[in-house]
Amino acid sequence: MSENNKNTTSEKDKNKDAEKSSVRPEPVISIAASDRENTEIDIPVKAKKLRRERRKKTMNTIALSNIILIGALLAGGFAYMTLLPHETKADDENRMLTKFPKLSAKSYASGQYTEGIADYFDDTVHNRANIKEFIADNLMPLKGRKYGGSDDGAELYGSSAKKKKSISAVTTTKPFIPEITTETTAVQAATEPATEEPAPAEGELTNNILIVNKRGITLYGGGWGTELEYASYLNAYKEKLGNVNVYSMVLPTSSSFYLPDNYKDLAHSEKEDFDNIDGALQNVMSVDAYSALNAHKDEAIYSRTDHHWQPLGAYYAAEKFALTAGVPFADLSEYETVTLPGYVGTLYMYTQSATLLNNPEDFVYYKPKVPVTVTQYDTHFQNPVVANLLLDPSVMPNSGYYMVFGSDERIVHVNTECKNGRTLVIFKDSYGNALLPMLTSSFENIYLCDIRYFELNAIDFINQVGATDLLFSMCSFSAVGVNRNSIYNNLIR
Amino acid sequence: MVFSRLFFIYIFLPLCLLCYALARGTKAKNTVLIIFSLVFYAWGEPVYIFLMLITAVVNYSAGLLIGKYQGKKGDTAATAAVVVYDLLMLGVFKYSGFIVENINALFSSSIPVPDIKLPIGISFYTFQTISYIIDCHWEKVKPQKSFKNFLLFLTLFPQLVAGPIVRYSTIEKEIEERTITLSDVSYGLNRVALGLGKKVLLANQLSIIADSFLGNIGSSTMLGAWYGVIAYGLQIYFDFSGYSDIAIGLGRVFGFHFDENFKHPFICRDITEFWQRWHISLSTFFRDYVLYIPIFGKRRKYGGLFLVWLCTGIWHGASWNFIIWGLYYGIFVFIEMKIGKKNMKKIPIVIRHIYSKFVIFVGFGIFYFEKLGKLGTFFKTAFGFGKNGFIAVQDKISLMNNMYLMILAVICCFPILSSIKNISDKHYVTKVTVSSAAAIAAALLLIVTSVMLVDATTNPFLYFRF
């Protein structure tokens, strides 16, 4: 087809040439021939004319070459877009690419069909991932320099314009797991409706990311009062549950530990909000994960390229929780360590920063050596299936973090060999997933539920499974953002 | 469909150029252009295309009537009727929501606000038809007898959705007869590449800065507000002038010579000059068809002036900030008129540059904020009454991260390419060198732009999922 196209381009050029030649004066060669018979006086005039003609011809040759050059690019691009196979999946963005639209009267009338065709071609360009890496690596760095040093300097990425809406999107965007979710499309992801109320008007949670010292840091924007709402919801749970131990373990993000001093102004203090929460909790036990993590901040407890922590961070937090709850806790030596090198996580997906792309990290997780029985249920606690505690790395989604558990839209029950009669329910966000393997020697039964996708009355559920302990464990962004509303909604459902 | 997407550049355009090259004779070429223009428009507006076609029939017929009754009552009646029709269509489809909202606010009524989607390009093609009809009435042009030719004038896709507002008189002759030279085609293709580069490499990247600093004006510092608004002004310029470049370039490839729409507006020395360089097809439209409407009697000089600026404002969008924006410029043009050209020239050039750039970029602030509350915050922040101080670390990081982009954008505001061309044209050797270099530069620009467009569909779930 490209061959075809090129032929027709040159045909076009010939055509233009023909049009042109009708107004063009005599060809140069015939003038040159007639030159021989000229008188001496005529020669300079003729020579001038000859030179003018020659120059004109040269200019036309340049113009023609120009047309052929751009024409060849257009023809080549046409062939590239139409003949080469279309991509179907974007690993770095965790989504399926746009599919060819289905024709219906409605989709046509709304323009979605035609625009959908154009979207399909634009979105599924052959070798898309490599081209994007080329952009991240070679083109984007041309925009400027890193702030404060070329190697470890800072880059700031933000989506502040959409800040408020964005928080609601957090609650509804679903993680992409290859074998389970295949219908996720770009359009769906982009237009996922915001179901929750808007984020707090005063203090806005920033979705800005700072990249400094080869680490992406999510900048915490502060609760500005909403942290107290979080505390009051937990108090309400405790009031209804009576004898069940209720714990609050709000998890700091990398914003607390890795922001260099001169960038401290970019983020609000998470510790300050945690202290506010502690002050407002009534009969709910607070677990100080902040100190536990702070003590180990020189270890790889947070991912550099992902907005989550690393399982090692979860280990230290879980240790603190076990201590607070008075349950046994298995040392790290009782786990099998698995290292996945070359990991580039979600923060690259958000920023497309070459710094992250070119500085992958090890994703390290820990497999309990003790046998456990894992059952997965849907979000209504129905349809149980036997499952593995950890995903097989070969089916690992791009956000390797999810391999700890796989998906948030399930309830997981883990039955362990720790026969202490304690049953723990964890209400969590994605940060909480990493806690699960770390508590398999501490409780007899663990139920892991995501607050955002839970569809039952929480109190009924807790009573139904006979929980002795209830742990709320989510990161600061969730506790003060709209995700906190899910805690309340699950209470009154 | 928009120009700055791979589907247009590498599928629609090659097919269109191919068919155009294969078509023999102007008539066949016109047919090809009409078909591709209709497909182009229907791609985004499969329903409203009928609105445009009806408008075409109405204006075409009115043109014939005007021609038939030239100088008689029927001429004036037909002109008035069809101008009212055109304005009514624009009013209904563009402004009815805004009008009803304001009536409701003013009289505390609760008339349901009509939810009408704005048909693509209606602001542009309506002005084209109005200029055609009035020119017919003034006998500046002869009414087009062939509907096909009229349809081509109206729907010609390079200028259909985002201007420039090409007048019938500009392309009257070329619709029926045009020669296409090699230099036209090569110039046109290069111009298209330049326009795409401006839009994709500059405007799209500048918009990220503008959105972070203006979109979040409540957290911006004074420096951040100015940085954001300068990035935004540059973004709008490269976006809009890039589109005009593509339109003019494509027009040239097809053998049409459209007028320039932007002439390096930021090198202006006063506001009056700015509008002689910015969106020229719009300001000349208002100058020719609105400024001298004799409705203001003796005061028509100034009455007309403010009417023009009111219209300019509201043409840009159905929102109060655009009206304020238009009148804001009206005030400065008025002041400059009062000072007088001679006196203006006496003011040192540096001061005139500072004054005009200041007015223009504050103007972009008004243009950006459709919500008047946010506009107020912008003004407070920009003039030192904000709550976030003068400078913060995020300003420093962003300025550093976008340093070369900003420098390049500022450089591109100067007429460098046209200066190079003017100088090189004087000598044969430089002319050959520059023309050859231009071809290579255009090709490289097209490649880089296309590569960047692969990223345009990236959907990085801008938000963290916890």
From TrEMBL, chain A:
Entries under InterPro entries matching the protein: DHHW (IPR025945)
Q: Where is this region: Disordered?
A: 1-35
Domain of life the protein comes from = Bacteria
User: What parts of the sequence cross the membrane?
Assistant: 58-81
* Cross-referenced Pfam families: DHHW
In this chain, composition skew of type Basic and acidic residues spans 9-23
Q: Which UniProt keywords apply?
A: Membrane, Transmembrane, Transmembrane helix
Q: What is this protein called?
A: DHHW protein
User: Which species does the entry assign this protein to?
Assistant: Ruminococcus flavefaciens
Automatic annotation (TrEMBL), chain B:
- Chain segments annotated as transmembrane: 78-98, 306-328, 349-369, 403-420, 432-454
Any one of the GO BP annotations: alginic acid biosynthetic process
Its Gene Ontology molecular function terms?
Answer: acyltransferase activity
Going by the UniProt record, its keywords in alphabetical order are: Acyltransferase, Cell membrane, Membrane, Transferase, Transmembrane, Transmembrane helix
One CC-aspect GO term: plasma membrane
One Pfam family name is: MBOAT
What membrane topology does the annotation report for this chain? Multi-pass membrane protein
Compartment list: Cell membrane
| Family note | Belongs to the membrane-bound acyltransferase family.
Listed name of the protein:
Alginate O-acetyltransferase complex protein AlgI
Organism of derivation: Ruminococcus flavefaciens
